[in-house]
Amino acid sequence: MPDWPVIRNIAAASLLWAALASSAFATGAEPAKDVQVDATACTVAAAGDDDDKTVSACGELINNDKAAKPDRIKALIARAAALDRKNRASEAIEDYNTVMQLDPTRADVLNARGEIRRRNGSFPKALADFGMAIKVKPDYAIARANYKSLAYEIERIGALIAVAGKPSFYCKTARRAVEKAICANRELADLDREIHAMAVRVMGDARSFDDARKLQREQEAFLARRNAEFGRPGYDLLKAMKRRLQDIVGVDGY
Questions:
Q1: Where are the domains of the chain?
Q2: In sequence order, which residues have a C-beta less than 8 Å from that of residue 89 and are 6 or more positions away?
Q3: pTM here?
Q4: CB burial class (10 A; 0-12, 13-18, 19+) of residue 75?
Q5: How far is CA 126 from CA 101, 115, 123, 157, in A?
Q6: What is the pLDDT of residues 193-229, one digit of tens each?
Q7: Cβ neighbours for 118, distance < 8 A, ≥ 6 positions apart
Q8: Could you give the percent of the chain with pLDDT greater than 90?
Q9: Which of these ranges, 118-122, 203-207, 238-242, 248-252, has the smallest mean pLDDT?
């Protein structure tokens, strides 16, 4: 005869196991799918060129821990561009820094960050950004052009700094009083060098030898008059030099 109490116990245990399994399934023992954050507001604001809405809407997306990584990167880039247009450069750079932490392969972000730094006078960091963008993407034409032009600009600035406060002649051999006065005054020294450089340039661009010779005689006449009149009552050296430069470059500039 069957042992009914044993059978009943086995059946009860089976039902209890089934109930527990069903309960575990219903209460989330199986991993739930991630809830996707809606990026529409940020995307629409950025597409509409509304910087205030972009900063606000994309900021909400960026600060949401459930935002997908690609959406967060897009929001950071959009907000950075908007912040840059609002002249909030340091905040824009911070957003670009975050993007590079999330995705170090974004050459476009490196270039954009470099452009902001260049506009704000941070030339070494800007040059480094352009260089890294080229390293990440060797065929990136915009970054290459930016690197080349900035490198040239840095070189030019360095050259200007090297000659700053130095006239067109050698001060240690200066004998005339007017030359010593020019050497002793940074503004006069820079102006003298500029007058000389522009005179040489204009003569070099002259349409004929006669035109170039005429310009040379005018420059020699100015120097002779300057040397003779310096120190006389009423003679203003700075004013005379500025007038000479204006005569060389013309009213509208050379």
A1: 38-103, 106-163, 171-249
A2: 83, 116, 119, 120
A3: 0.57
A4: buried
A5: 18, 7, 5, 15
A6: 989 888 888 888 888 888 888 989 999 999 999 999 9
A7: 126, 146, 150
A8: 59
A9: 248-252
What is the rounded radius of gyration, in angstroms, for the C-alpha atoms of the chain?
37
Give the CA angle between residues 106, 111, 115 to the nearest 5°: 150
Report whether pLDDT(23) > 80: no
Q: What is the pLDDT of residues 125-170, one digit of tens each?
A: 999 999 999 999 999 999 999 999 988 888 777 766 777 788 989 9
Architecture in CATH of 106-163 = Alpha Horseshoe (1.25)
Q: What is the Cβ-side half-sphere exposure of residue 220, based on CA atoms within 13 angstroms?
A: 7
